Amino acid sequence: MTQCFHTVKELRDYLKPLKAQGKTVGLVPTMGALHQGHATLISNSAKENDITVVSVFVNPTQFGPNEDFDAYPRTLDADLEVVAKAGGDVVFAPSPKEMYPSADDTWVEVTGNITKVLCGKTRPIHFRGVTTVVSKLFNIVGPTRAYFGQKDAQQVEVLRRMVKDMFFDLELRIVPIVREDSGLARSSRNTYLSAEEKSAAVVLSKTLKSALEKFKSGCTNLNDIISFTKTEIAKEPLANIEYVECYGLPGLYELKEEITAPALLAVAVRFGTTRLIDNIILE
Amino acid sequence: MTQCFHTVKELRDYLKPLKAQGKTVGLVPTMGALHQGHATLISNSAKENDITVVSVFVNPTQFGPNEDFDAYPRTLDADLEVVAKAGGDVVFAPSPKEMYPSADDTWVEVTGNITKVLCGKTRPIHFRGVTTVVSKLFNIVGPTRAYFGQKDAQQVEVLRRMVKDMFFDLELRIVPIVREDSGLARSSRNTYLSAEEKSAAVVLSKTLKSALEKFKSGCTNLNDIISFTKTEIAKEPLANIEYVECYGLPGLYELKEEITAPALLAVAVRFGTTRLIDNIILE
């Protein structure tokens, strides 16, 4: 069974002699409820590093007051098995008090458009929570490489900016979206979906794929691509669109009339009470 | 002559092989215009570490719009000599563009009372600038120990909180205030003072010393100590008090009627256009 540490001290005591020997360390930050997407991050890390640390922490500061912090699935025993099978070495599963030791918080916040568009509009404190907890994990682990999924495309861009601005001495490794056979992007929140909703949610990946084909075949007009994506998704009666947006990469810069490759086409759509995100890179 | 690097890459290339050999690194973050106070920080670091890095960077983000960023003394050649004499090994003197590579900033901010009292009242963005630049320097250098002066007592408490909350893996070393023979606390801003103002400014250290004696002799009432300090300083016609405040240590917690040791008695006072700070620990 994978070793599991709950305190910063235990984890550091474990890592210190290994680092002194010059061993490389991969970090896979997660909120647990591990699925095949996480397993891919872990196995990539295991291939590229001597030691792989998987953090399992449902980070309270990245949830808004009306979001699903309490409902978020917590499945530590199953997670330990996923980590072991994928080749991870240790799990770090701290308590909120361990990660947030003070009554008032110290925040790490990326400012500018990059945190205001897409999910930043409806989840105004989300990315501040993400950058804060990821900074803490970087400082605790001191990884050689850190692994994140392209599924959270905006998070990836925000973290790239943070690593650059704050001079974190590590390499960000971004792993492509892992999908179910149906095309549905793997997500811990998929467990919230009814069978009917889950089948309806396939419209997201299907539409994004069609949008990419449209773009590749020469349709590079921003409004056309956005309208097409909205229209296709809206054909699914259970889909309730929060946003369909497209920004330039890297950095999520604003596009004018034409889409310049590479660009991120990203969607957030509710199925019942469950909010799903998905994206594709137009290039 | 001391080596001086201007880019993060140069400094890291220099430090990397030394760290691989297990050498310890002391970091002394400064804004230059080095005086005997800085020299003491540097020589302390040189005693306790294999390598001492002194950063010289007038950090724009910790100055308010009407503060002395442009006027702040910049004396790199003289600074290099001070560093060499005090036993420092290298100077890191980056440009603002090197330290702030993005158009929008990534901030590290300690929230709560600790950054709102004392200098936080009149310098609302100051500590956010300090914690941001110090975080960057910590990530760039990866020091074993970092050295700061007790002169900036609130900065010390804010940085302690940041190091704890963000899990920086280093030791903060706080060095007592270095004073001129007159008692005046050494500060780069002392160069702004006229001869008359400089002589008047001695009232600060003299009064703080008397307040400590009063406290030690049994006067532990908060209002009495504050009034005494204000009254004594106000006897100096050139002194223009910004604040005289007293908070519990560690963490600058609010005191009620009685002062519990250890507590920080801190003052900010203008002499002409020059704002000086000084403090003493009541214990």
Automatic annotation (TrEMBL), chains A, B:
It is an enzyme of class 6 (ligase). ATP binds at residues 31-38, 149-152, 178, 186-189. Pathway: Cofactor biosynthesis; (R)-pantothenate biosynthesis; (R)-pantothenate from (R)-pantoate and beta-alanine: step 1/1. Its main location: cytoplasm. The active site is at residue 38. GO terms for molecular function: ATP binding; pantoate-beta-alanine ligase activity. It catalyses: (R)-pantoate + beta-alanine + ATP = (R)-pantothenate + AMP + diphosphate + H(+). It is found in: Cytoplasm. One of its GO terms (biological process) is pantothenate biosynthetic process. Belongs to the pantothenate synthetase family. The reaction proceeds by a bi uni uni bi ping pong mechanism. HAMAP family: PanC. This is Pantothenate synthetase. The gene is panC.
